[in-house]
Amino acid sequence: MKSLFKLILNTIPRPLLIRLSYVARPILALLLKGNTYTDPIDGKSFRSFLPYGYGNQRHNVLSPSTLSLERHRLLWLYLKSDTDFFSAEKKVLHFAPEQCFLKRFRNLKNLNYTTTDLLSPIADVKADICNLPFEDNSYDVILCNHVLEHIPDDTKAMQELFRVLKPGGYGIFQIPQDLSRDVTFEDDTITDKAERTKIFGQYDHVRVYGRDYFDKLRSVGFKVEEIDYTAQLSAEDIEKYCLAKGEIIPVVYKPNL
Could you tell me if 14 and 54 are in contact, meaning their C-beta atoms sit under 8 angstroms apart? Predict the structure, then answer.
């Protein structure tokens, strides 16, 4: 039965799996209940997580309860331990809000919380990241994770993020990143979706960021910290929370005027 269940999960196409997961989340959480892996976002434990990804799926990465991935759990742990995000009064702008965070962040009484996206039906404000409808120096915190790799003019997007962030404020701009690359790669002459998925990870990604991503943020005006939060965790916790060892959290700051 266990082998059959895993076989079914591993053969369901990713988009369908995600849609089914939202509907069947309570059932999946019950079926996979155990003590091996824990989602730190809700504290629930399972004998395994779900697979996720285009083409070559990553196994044991999608939480059955919150539907969080490695990057979401890493961000949650960082915000909880190294910031005052959950306690201090903050005006927060969240791009393309993830389902695993949306209700939890919205329910935090200390946050003045706004979500935005160009297309998402769950966003409070429909907006183009390259032409934001917000005033200068508006937000204490900006979360913009796994968005910039979709934006053709990411320099303009970064400039807009810098503009609306308050002096002294910070942002977290996670992206899929190949840390073995010194230089970001993009090629808009590749138009075949399967080929783009193979090269860029998803057909709708326009680049693969290298280590120069951090310097590009600095060129816009941000002070950047490249935080390997997994280096602060034990090997046991990395495995327990199903994290990607060595993943960098890009934390940016707008200098005070």
Answer: yes
Domain closes at, from 68, 93, 117: 68
* Residue range of the domain that includes 53: 2-68
Same domain, 81 and 48: no
pLDDT tens per residue, range 186-239:
998 998 888 888 888 888 899 999 999 999 999 999 999 999 999 999 999 999
Angstrom distance (rounded) from CA 254 to CA 256 = 6
Measure CA 133 to chain center. Answer: 23
d(CA 19, CA 8): 15
How many other C-beta atoms can be found within 10 angstroms of the C-beta atom of residue 255? 9
Residue keyed to tokens 């490695």: 70
Q: List all residues 6 or more positions away from 13 whose beta carbon is below 8 Å from its beta carbon.
A: none
> Which CATH number characterizes residue 134's domain?
3.40.50.150
pTM: 0.88
CA dihedral 55, 38, 233, 208 (to 10 degrees): 20
**Looking at the structure, do residues 109 and 223 belong to the same domain, yes or no?**
yes
| Domain total of the chain | 2
Q: What is the pLDDT of residues 118-158, one digit of tens each?
A: 988 889 999 999 999 999 999 999 999 999 999 999 999 99
CA distance 40 to 49: 13
Tell me the pairing of strands 139-144 and 165-172.
Answer: parallel
